[in-house]
Design brief:
There is one protein chain. This protein is of the alpha+beta class and about 200 residues long. The chain has one domain: Fumarylacetoacetase-like, C-terminal domain (Fumarylacetoacetate hydrolase, domain 2). The chain is built from four helices and 15 strands. Strands 2-1-12-5-6-9 form a six-stranded mixed sheet, covered by helices on one side. It has a four-stranded antiparallel sheet with strand order 11-10-14-15, with no helix packed on it. The two termini are about 25 Å apart. It binds magnesium ion. The site of magnesium ion has 7 residues, from strand 1. GO terms for molecular function: acetylpyruvate hydrolase activity; metal ion binding. It holds the Pfam family FAA_hydrolase.
């Protein structure tokens, strides 16, 4: 199982970090040791003073595929869940400024909390109109809608599979909307797709 992530997939988030809008999806990976499941608490690591939350819709791949055409891409994922792409923003900024890979800022242990429940794709009336949000201590911090993604699910799957074979069980984090920000000790993070709470974890 591998975890692939899309960066810079929402215009307002690109603007808030003053990044350039990419022509093609920006892809990076997290190792399986980044996964944090069953609402286990997130422990702030000692190498960062600026861990940011990034709430994201997550696709679960259900078939192996390579060079997947966009029109067939919807048959390659069967469920959508919710995840947080925790990012050590201070470390990432340092790496970015030197043109170096982001792995350590994005792939550290526990950097990928994932909802236990995934919702079957068939339950969504419109994949281009899925609302999701993150609340911190009960206050809405990030709000997104899949219709605002620069690269939609099919585009992402098709693009990735030109380079990397997708396998059953792989996870794709599809990018974060605006509103990212630091977490602090004692925060309680809750994540929702529509009004269904799928994530609820403590920051320790
Ligand atoms: Mg992200």
């Amino acid at each position: 199982m591998k975890i692939l992530c899309i960066g810079r997939n929402y215009a307002e988030h690109i603007a808030e970090l003053q990044n350039e809008t990419p022509d093609a999806p920006v892809i990076f990976a997290k190792p399986d040791t980044a996964l944090l499941q069953r609402n286990q608490p997130f422990f702030i690591p000692d190498f960062s003073q600026d861990i940011h939350h990034e709430i994201e819709l997550v696709l679960r791949i259900c078939r192996n595929g390579k060079n997947i055409e966009e029109k067939f891409a919807p048959t390659y994922f069967d469920a959508i869940g919710l995840g947080i792409d925790f990012t050590a923003r201070d470390l990432q900024s340092k790496l970015k400024s030197k043109g170096l890979p982001w792995e350590l800022a994005k792939g550290f242990d526990g950097s990928a909390p994932l909802s236990q429940d995934f919702l079957p794709v068939a339950d969504f009336p419109d994949l281009k109109n899925i609302n999701f949000r993150l609340e911190v201590n009960g206050e809405v911090r990030q709000q997104g809608n899949s219709g605002l993604m620069l690269h939609d699910f099919s585009n992402i799957i098709s693009y990735i599979s030109r380079f990397i074979t997708l396998k059953m069980g792989d996870l794709i984090f599809t990018g974060t909307p605006s509103g990212v920000g630091p977490v602090k000790l004692g925060d309680q993070l809750t994540g929702y797709i529509e009004d269904l709470q799928l994530l609820n974890l403590a920051v320790k």
